[in-house]
Write a structure and sequence with these properties.
By secondary structure, the protein is α/β, with parallel strands linked by helices. The strands form 2 sheets. It has a 5-stranded parallel sheet with strand order 2-3-1-4-5, sandwiched between helices. Strands 6-7-8 form a 3-stranded antiparallel sheet, with helices on both faces. Helix 11 links the parallel strand 4 and strand 5. Helix 2 packs across helix 7, helix 3 packs antiparallel against helix 4 and helix 19 packs across helix 21. The longest helix is centred in the last third of the chain and has 25 residues. The chain is globular, with a radius of gyration of 29 Å.
Length: 586
């Protein structure tokens, strides 16, 4: 932490550089006092300022829980935006200065904006990918709704206003301090430049994800002179941008890209993390990390698609896709604990539903069987997971259950329909579509194909929407080329089934002894020195998660039965690693 006088001098320098005067002596002294005291978060802990005679009365008693939650949310908001980018933090500090001034003006009019409306505004917008200006607008709307509920006479208004002004000074000072950091001084941005230019290369398409719109706009501003770069948020024309970025994966959108520059690097918030096919790109960069690993998996899923999967086309379905994660700076992560929280949730997910690829580290244990069961329709693997992982077939399955319960005769008729049943309906456009359901053993998939049998999508929601109709809708005549189209889809499905069967045969699950060793290695790795993580734990984890010989399996099972832990277990594993020359396979 910088000395107070140095902070004050740097704030003055930044003010002068922006064309403003240095702080007058009284303001400088007031800022010095605020720095020494630290942030009070007065605006988000209003119950501390309620007079004792009002503390047990409605609605003031409700401020107890709201205050605890709001203070924690605001603290996370500040650290999370700082982790994202200097611009996200800069705009947040500017917004918080403005909202504190807005609150002070409300107090001057005898109003205290507070309560659950404020909490929802900050939670819904401040922690997610909204811009700082949207946070400001939502907070002001919440204040207008809440201000009539709370009588200013119930508060120690003088102390509240003093703390409010002190916090406003601190946010303003933080804004001026980070305003000195330009693109050349932004180490994270420079690392991104090097990654794109030197490691990924200028021929690869890249999706660059960030949680915050402020960061996405900032990154685009640094590259907007290059026509190959574009950014997207909820307000952008998504279809037109996808047509320029991923035309092979979205053949129906090609006309939207006509006469416009193709996009090689697409900067996006999580507006693109779900429901889009972007396999034209083989690289994902996470410029910041979301607390929920499901979001990260969804980001990877835009380019690493199990379906639609094209083994015959290495441009649409390459053998390898690449992901880069930007981790928070070490000291900052002591406050966020972001890496540990994500790591623990990834481990929980692996145990519940499996994991077919690493999320944070290349040394993570992989369990493809659980994921294959999930994609094969085994709903039991996802029952304990978040709604984000529920099958899109849930609504259709509920419809079938309703028919079974309320119309048993109709359910029996449906159940007895033969394989290969076919039907047709009219669509509101002139492009024919085929909806084809394929099944082989416990693996099944629904496809939406064009008139030639070329697969357009395997997104369940899109396919179900295409065939959804009223029960009374008349059946149309089948197209003359239906057999050829269905045969083409079936050949595609057969190739996928063969590859998945081969994958199951060639990648056996780790034994109980291996899982025991790997769990303990990963646990010890979390508290190890950075050098030891790289030189000791990573090689061991990589070696013992691969298939091992019978002799090693027996030894690992023995260590498990003896419940060996800690340093004793680590010594034995290092001996196995050396004696059996497992390093030679690295």
């Amino acid at each position: 932490c910088l000395p107070t006088e140095e902070i004050l001098d740097r704030v003055d320098q930044a003010r002068i550089a922006s064309g403003q005067a240095a702080l007058p002596k009284d303001e400088r002294d007031a800022l010095a006092a605020a720095i020494e005291s630290g942030l009070t978060y007065a605006r988000y802990g209003l119950y501390r300022y309620v007079k004792p005679s009002y503390q047990d009365k409605e609605p003031y008693i409700n401020l107890v829980a709201a205050g605890v939650n709001l203070r924690g949310l605001m603290r996370i908001l500040l650290f999370k935006r700082l982790e994202s980018s200097v611009e996200a933090f800069r705009s947040t500090c500017r917004t918080l200065t403005q909202t504190h001034e807005h609150f002070a003006r409300a107090m001057d009019r005898g109003r205290i904006p507070a309560g659950q409306e404020m909490q929802r505004a900050i939670y819904d917008l401040g922690i997610e990918e909204a811009s700082a200006s949207e946070v400001m607008e939502a907070i002001e709307q919440a204040e207008r709704k809440a201000s009539s509920k709370y009588d200013i006479k119930a508060f120690d208004a003088e102390r509240l206003r003093a703390d409010l002004v002190a916090d406003s000074r601190l946010f303003s000072a933080l804004h001026y301090l980070v305003s000195e950091i330009g693109p050349k001084e932004d180490a994270k941005l420079q690392r991104l430049n090097a990654l794109l230019a030197d490691e990924i290369g200028k021929d690869e398409k890249v999706i660059l994800f960030t949680q915050f719109e402020d960061t996405a706009r900032y990154l685009y501003d640094q590259f907007k002179g290059n026509p190959e770069f574009e950014w997207i948020s909820g307000a952008k024309d998504t279809a037109a941008i996808l047509a320029r970025f991923a035309p092979r994966s979205n053949p129906g959108l090609e006309r939207l890209a006509h006469g416009r520059n193709p996009i090689r690097v697409l900067i996006s918030t999580d507006v693109l993390s779900e429901g889009q096919n972007l396999q034209d790109a083989h690289c994902v960069v996470n410029y910041d990390l979301h607390f929920n690993p499901v979001r990260l998996i969804q980001r990877f899923g835009r380019i690493d698609r199990l379906t639609p999967y094209f083994p015959e086309d290495d441009k649409r379905s390459p053998e390898e896709v690449w992901a880069w994660n930007f981790f928070p700076e070490t000291e900052l992560d002591t406050h966020l604990e972001l890496k540990d929280k994500i790591r623990h949730r990834v481990e929980e997910m692996r145990r519940v539903i499996g994991q077919d690829a690493p999320v944070l580290y290349s040394t993570e244990e992989i369990d493809e069987d659980g994921v294959i069961r999930l994609y094969s329709g085994d709903g039991t693997v996802a029952q304990e997971e978040d709604d984000d992982l529920r099958s899109p077939l849930a609504d259709a399955e509920q419809l079938i259950r309703d028919i079974q319960r309320n119309r048993p005769d109709e359910y029996e008729r449906i159940a007895e329909l033969p394989d290969g049943v076919r039907s047709a309906r009219l669509l509101d456009h002139d492009k024919a579509r085929f909806f084809v359901y394929c099944r082989a053993g416990d693996f099944h998939q629904l496809y939406l194909a064009d008139a030639d049998g070329e697969i357009v999508s395997s997104d369940l929601s899109e396919g179900l929407e295409a065939v959804e109709c009223e029960e009374e809708e008349p059946r149309q005549e089948l197209p003359s080329n239906i057999n050829a189209a269905v045969t083409r889809v079936k050949r595609h499905f057969d190739r996928i089934v063969r590859e998945m069967q081969a994958r199951r045969q060639t990648r056996p699950r780790p034994t109980a002894g291996q899982r025991y060793a790997l769990d303990h290695l990963r646990e010890q790795r979390m508290t190890a020195d950075p050098d030891d993580r790289q030189s000791v734990f990573d090689p061991l984890i990589e070696a013992f998660q691969r298939p091992v010989s019978t002799a090693i399996r027996r030894r690992l099972n023995f260590l498990r039965s003896e419940k060996l832990e800690g340093e004793a277990l680590l010594r034995q594993l290092r001996r196995l690693y050396t004696e059996h020359r497992l390093y030679q396979a690295n």
